Amino acid sequence: MKKTKKLVGLLSVFLITLCSCTNENVDPVQVQLLKKIVEVSVDGSSKTILLSYEGNKIVHIDKFDTVSTFYYTGDLITKIVELDKTNQHLNTSEYFYFDGLLTKIASSDNYVINYVHNNDGSVFYEKLTKDSNNNDVKIYHGTLYFQSENLVKDERFFDDAGLAVLSKKSISLAYDSKNNALHNILGFNKLLDYAKTISLNNSINSAEISEIKYTDSDQVVSAMNIYKSKYQYNSNGYPTEIVSENLIFGGNDSNHLKSQLFYN
After folding, report:
1. What's the rounded Cα separation, in Å, for the pair 130 and 134?
2. What SS3 class is residue 86?
3. CA dihedral in degrees (100, 150, 183, 102; nearest 10)?
4. C-alpha span between 114 and 112 (Å, rounded)
5. Parallel, antiparallel or unpaired: strands 34-41 and 46-54
6. Which of 248, 243, 247 is nearest to 230 (CA)?
7. Cα–Cα dist 144/29, whole Å
8. What is the pTM of this model?
9. Own/partner long-range contacts of 243-252 (Cβ < 8 Å, ≥24 apart)
10. Cα separation of the two ends of the chain
11. Cα separations in angstroms, 152 against 117, 189, 199
12. Model confidence over 160-219: pLDDT tens digits?
């Protein structure tokens, strides 16, 4: 019995030592979270965006003109409160899900966006507002198309009335094979209203086609803009610099030169 206990003790020490040695040989990949963005203009001026977290949950995105505060229910982002620093306007957006998929955004700015997830992986959406009589008015509707966890196309139709209206806008995107800077933020890839920033990889170019229809003559005028982005990456494959007219959180500016990204 004593020999058995001694043998078990030696075996336990051996296994602990083996596990310790094995763990020492593992080089874990550090989870990188984007902490700061410096948006640099062609004239050399710059603006800074700061991101703060609790673990891998985003808490604040503090831009130069707005600050957004994020709230979670479990692993899903269910509310975003945005403050416009200029006019102190406060907007609250609530996010609703079914089986982990976003189905609705309700904004205190008098609009709702509904989402329907199709069997082929595409997502139909429509944006509605209320008129003075509390009737639903459709602003636009469209479809998001995904491939390999990247948003590759956003086709949108505008439902406004008028003699000359923007009737359609289509954005097609191509990607690299590197890591999106925002990919490790828990639940962020569910936010369909954040467009290409929810994709797995980084957009290297986008083509935007706009169509204006003159309803009195049925004449359609089209215009195309192509935006390209060049990246520098760190050793873990995350972008550290993006030369582009596109801003990180949407929109484009011909005076924008580059974005510099910093991680934890």
Report:
1. 5
2. coil
3. -20
4. 6
5. antiparallel
6. 243
7. 32
8. 0.84
9. 246/203, 246/206, 247/39, 248/37, 248/39, 248/49, 248/181, 248/197, 249/49, 249/61, 249/63, 249/194, 249/197, 250/194, 250/195, 250/197, 252/227
10. 54
11. 16, 14, 9
12. 655 556 689 999 999 999 999 999 999 999 999 998 899 999 999 999 999 987 877 778
Give Cα 250 distance to the centre of its chain.
9
- The length of the chain, given as a count of residues: 264
**Which structure tokens are listed for 183?**
């990919």
Pair of tokens at residue 238: 């995350």
Question: Is the Cβ–Cβ distance between 64 and 47 less than 8 Å?
Answer: yes
User: In 55-176, which ranges are E strands?
Assistant: 57-62, 66-73, 76-84, 90-98, 101-107, 111-117, 123-130, 136-147, 150-158, 164-175
Give strand pairing partners of 228.
Answer: 205
Task: Give pLDDT tens digits for 65-95.
Answer: 999 999 999 999 999 999 999 999 999 999 9
Amino acid at 185: I
Could you say which DSSP state residue 218 is in? T
Helices (H), the chain: 2-25
Paired with 47 in beta bridges are 39
